[in-house]
Amino acid sequence: MAKKLHVKKGDLVQVNAGKDKGAVGKVIEAFPQEGKVRVEGANILTKHKKPSQAMPQGGIVKTEGKIDVSNVNLYCDTCGKGVRTAVKVDDEGKKVRVCKKCGKVLD
């Protein structure tokens, strides 16, 4: 069963655990079934590729690995760090995510 993630594709997040602690980047891809996300510039993996039609030389390729969603927080530029969020209903009746510290709308 898929988990409900607190971040989605395109969100700006800060990594709060692991070797890339403090790194800020955009969510490239979300995996709700696994409870993981792929963040731009964080958890860089080195893969050795065999020669193929697409890559005749083969070689070493660097890609972003998956990070557990519990290790990232939504980034608030007003606060300048990863923050916890609350859900509020705006004037039009839509649900929006807001920073718990400063109250800024993050959506």
Poorly predicted sequence stretches spanning 5 or more consecutive residues? none
Q: How much strand?
A: over 45%
Helix content: under 10%
Radius of gyration: 17 Å
What string, H for helix and E for strand, traces the elements in order? EEEEEEEEEE
Could you walk me through the main structural features you see in this protein, from its secondary elements to its overall organization?
By secondary structure, the chain is mainly β. The chain has a domain of 64 residues: SH3 type barrels, CATH 2.30.30.30. The chain contains no helices and 10 strands. The strands form 3 sheets. A 6-stranded antiparallel beta sheet has the order 6-3-2-1-7-8, with no helix packed on it. Strands 4-5 form a two-stranded antiparallel ribbon. A two-stranded antiparallel ribbon has the order 9-10. β7 and β8 form a beta hairpin. The relative contact order is 0.20. The mean pLDDT is 94.
